[in-house]
Amino acid sequence: MNNSLAVVLIASGIAYGTPLLFASLGELLAERSGVLNLGVEGMMLVGAVTGFWTVQRFHAATAVTLLLALVVAAVAGAAMASILAVLVITLRANQIVTGLALTIFAGAAGLSSYLGNDLNLADQPAHHAFQAFLPNSMQNWPIVGPILFGQNPLVYFSWVCVIVIALYLSRTRPGLNLRSVGESPAAADTMGIDVTRYRYVHTLLGGAFAGLGGATITLAITPQWVDGITGGAGWIAIALVIFAFWRPELCLVGAYFFGALQALAPQLQARNITLGPTVLWTNALPYLMTIFVLVVVSSGTARRRLGAPSALGVPYVREEH
Amino acid sequence: MRLRPPVTIEQRLRRPRWLTVAVPVGSVIFAFLVAALVLVATGHDPISTYHQLFDAAFVQRGSLDQTLIAATPLAFTGLAAAAAFRMKLYNIGAEGQMYMGAITGAAAGLYLGGRGGPSPFVIAAMVVAGGLGGMAWGLIPGILRAFFRTSEILTSLLLNYVAGLILTYLIFESESYWRQTKGFNATVFPTGKPLPPSAVWPGLSFNLQGGIVLPLGAGLAVLVAVFLWFLYTRTRFGFEAQVLGDSDRAARYAGIRVRRKILAVMALSGAIAGLGGVSQDGDFRHALDGDPNGLQKQGYGYTGIVVAALGRYNPFAVVVIAFLLGGLQNAGAALQGPSFPSGLVGVIQGIILFSALGGELLIRYRVRIRRPARPGGVAPAQVPETAA
């Protein structure tokens, strides 16, 4: 029963969805403060490469090395985000073009590839990787075993993050301040909230989460380094924030859905099932589904755009509004 | 009471002309300085790396020829991005639109081409087919944006991945019309069917550096630049597109048909990118290149965005910058090896773009440095701001 397609798809959907979840949580925090970060893909790649570098170069106990790798990846992601933050918050550059610039700078043909080559990371088996750690007897329980107990530690960590961020946004003073900065920075400023600081902090946090998401790929899902290993996951994460109406708990649902779509192609191949005109269709499915859901969400009934921060993408300049 | 920051930024009332040249030039110099820091940090000698880079891009024998090969597609994708970004339509799908142009253009060349020298009829048909292919792919995000208000940024970007999968599928995973199925090589490694001789584009040869060929596509790109310039500065269409780019609401009040403009601009942008694709078939590859490590590895569509932004969406500036960045791209490919890590070119391009984007602030705003307030004293009264 645990080998049935449905159970395997859900279980691997959760695993494959975790990088998307981390990245979209980060994007959500940045967007809630009013900063549209289109550099997620680049930040993920830098997190992925630096995280992988850490496990290859540091020889300590597995748990210590992996923890260190996560910290390095998060710091690297935040460092990338700090470039974006300076440009769009302090220097008021166009957020869309700057985000794209960051993805070009850090992305598959930029810094991540530079680091990957310069540090000779390609085509090496990982020295350490995150694996399922709960006792086998639990993992073998019917249905819930593989889905809930057969996951790597990052999956459980992402659940904690979802809960913490959801509570932060809805139940704490800084969370409320954050939302007001994203909705109406001028009003927040009048109330004495430091708009610039909120935007900086959450953009950097967003970068750290994107870095974590990237590291999830190279440390847990496919423990290796290949140029452009994220394959557009950063962009799907940005789209996920829109589907999730800027809510962390819905990010989780969306991330697992898209994770399952990504897992679909290899699973079907392994079972010799062909869906429509061969591999093309199954490989293109995550991208096409993203577009489809985006269209549904942005038109018609959902036009109300539940949750979109009003000041998203608009630089805040005191006395200019 | 909070202290006033020592540096304030205020809007310029007038924008001096010299700044629009000085700032980009300064940005490039600044970018090379920052990239030098990256090089030093990773244990490379910046001076010798830059020297090699410049040599391989513009000086060495045959380098200009290679630079033109890299610059031609960048001119197309840069112009495609400029055409759309000018109107604040962020079409980042030039990459996929280029693949589609390459597919449809190659189909026309394979179908119509025959023996003998280059035929103007076949080439014209390829250009039209390539433009239409790119246009169709660009219209998808255009339609979604115009009718469903879906962000064209995400849809156009995601379609790049789909177009790449289609391109690979046609050559590697199917026995399509574009694939070479006969001959010994075809069984070893899948390739595209070679274009018949009359569908191969001619170039203009110069006797310099041991022979430079100016590809037909480069000429076509210049024509497109002239067309875009004329369209955006001399026609009603261009004016309306500008108004729409500046203010959606003003455009609606002025009775401009917004949907139609969005569709037209996305179609135009996609068509230009498609021309870049068909130029890849006709000028350089002489077959449809479906190799994931071939055309798809170049990332011309994404670099085109850098080109367009650095040219501040001015078509002529875009062509010049395409040539310069083409040199950088070519040098990156030529020098790739242990002493010259891949990805460095992307890093330099990114840093140039960052500094240009940050430098934009200096064009729009004036930075004022205040003297720090004396300790214990009252902060100096703020200079009353003239119209902001």
List its traits.
heterodimer; A: 321 residues; mainly alpha; B: mainly alpha; ABC transporter involved in vitamin B12 uptake, BtuC; two-stranded antiparallel sheet; two-stranded antiparallel ribbon; 66% helix; globular; disordered C terminus
Q: Could you explain how this protein is built, in words?
A:
- The complex is a heterodimer of chains A (about 325) and B (about 400).
- By secondary structure, chain A is mostly helical.
- Chain A has one domain: ABC transporter involved in vitamin B12 uptake, BtuC.
- Chain A is about 70% helix and about 0% strand.
- The N and C termini of chain A lie far apart (about 60 Å).
- Helix content of chain B is about 65%, strand content about 5%.
- In chain B, helix 4 runs antiparallel to helix 5.
- The C terminus of chain B is likely disordered.
- In chain B, the strands form two sheets. Chain B has a two-stranded antiparallel ribbon with strand order 1-4. In chain B, strands 2-3 form a two-stranded antiparallel ribbon.
- Chain B has a domain of about 250 residues: ABC transporter involved in vitamin B12 uptake, BtuC.
- Classes of the chains: A mainly alpha (about 325), B mainly alpha (about 400).
- The interface between A and B is large, with 55 and 50 residues.
